[in-house]
Amino acid sequence: MAQEFKQNFITRSLTGLGITLPVFFIIFLENDYVFVAFLLLITGLSIYEWFKNSNNKSFLADSIIISLFAILTALYSDKFFFYVVLFTSIFWLLFCISLATQSYKKLSFTSFENIFLRALIPLGFFGSGVFLISQDNFLSFSNYYLMLIIILNSAISDSSAYLVGSFFGKNSLLKEISPNKTLEGFVGGVSSSAIFAFLIVYFFDVHLVLIAIFALGSVFAFTGDYFFSFLKRQSGIKDTGSMLPGHGGILDRMDSHFSATPVIIILIFFLI
Question: What gap in Å lies between CA 19 and CA 41, rounded to an integer?
Answer without folding.
Answer: 13
